[in-house]
Amino acid sequence: xxxxxxxxxxxxxxxxxxxxxxxxxxxxxxxxxxxxxxxxxxxxxxxxxxxxxxxxxxxxxxxxxxxxxxxxxxxxxxxxxxxxxxxxxxxxxxxxxxxxxxxxxxxxxxxxxxxxxxxxxxxxxxxxxxxxxxxxxxxxxxxxxxxxxxxxxxxxxxxxxxxxxxxxxxxxxxxxxxxxxxxxxxxxxxxxxxxxxxxxxxxxxxxxxxxxxxxxxxxxxxxxxxxxxxxxxxxxxxxxxxxxxxxxxxxxxxxxxxxxxxxxxxxxxxxxxxxxxxxxxxxxxxxxxxxxxxxxxxxxxxxxxxxxxxxxxxxxxxxxxxxxxxxxxxxxxxxxxxxxxxxxxxxxxxxxxxxxxxxxxxxxxxxxxxxxxxxxxxxxxxxxxxxxxxxxxxxxxxxxxxxxxxxxxxxxxxxxxxxxxxxx
Length: 424
Ligand code: RM4
Ligand code: MN
Ligand code: MN
Prior knowledge:
The chain contains 15 helices and 10 strands. The protein has helices at residues 4-31, 36-44, 74-88, 105-115, 147-166, 188-204, 231-241, 260-269, 295-308, 329-348, 352-360, 364-376, 380-389, 396-403, 405-412, and strands at 49-51, 93-98, 118-124, 171-174, 179-180, 211-215, 225-226, 245-250, 273-278, 317-320. Keywords: Isomerase, Manganese, Metal-binding.
């Protein structure tokens, strides 16, 4: 973890300016009839999960260029996730991937407590073969034509639930790479039927207070068809399963230019929006840092979420899901968590009563201007003040660099081989 003296020293440097900026923004918002402390308290209580795999350096299918001091195992990963949360106070939980993160659950609980974290949704990775498995997932997992392979994948998911119960998780996220690379390779209907049949068996093993999240993705690793390719198929799955099954929207899993905020609105309206994987993309599942390419789209998604906030039954899970190929993953995760908070704060600023009035009058220009007013407001002082008051860093990246954390762990963690491609 980061020495708290360093955080305090860095905060001392920033505090006077921050207070002046915060007060000025407070006056500005006051004139818009918005109470800045209300927005700040919403940001303070907001948390987003980080994926365990996100703290390792990612790669493409061509190569992976390792960073220095990369985590060697889940305990190193939890240390790094602890730093992200310590400085941002925005990422209190971690989403594990099984089998990547398998370890004795008592040790995981002890480590999480030590670094101030809890565990979010479990991810069952049946998109690759695990060592010691009897059957290969080369031609699919839950939808494989071979019954024994499907059974193995079903049991793995049930194992993930049991594992998660021991560490306080309350959700299982299923994303499968199942699909086909050639027209004619698979029978779409039969393949989906097999998927549904397998998913029903997993759903039957779900504890009462758990949620099953299914994640759609248009393509990759299968390049012609994917079993759960879009939100329509995802919604069918959730409807077939039951009340505990909901859809997870990964922002990078759609065709370019797809109106994601509208997908969010539709799923929300019918009670089937279960969670998010936040990231950003230009072309496909690029897994770029959240808000780095299209922060307006992120804002528009949060605009939909804020609309539903007053509904007590609406509580989708929020996670980051991104790959850091050329940056220090800790820095990218901190910046991304703050981008998510920014979009949330901006969406909270939208004058909804005025917006609805313009919508009813069909005043397109004033409606869009009213909406954008939230996005155009610089809410950074709110985010920084929330961090400062919670014991985090006003400027997390600067404090992190000052701390020398990466150099310190580099001494303890040997360089991991960079050969080959792959996401992790
Ligand atoms: C997939 C999908 C999953 C993530 C894996 C690593 O594209 O986004 O959510 O766990 O990548
Ligand atoms: Mn994802
Ligand atoms: Mn993805």
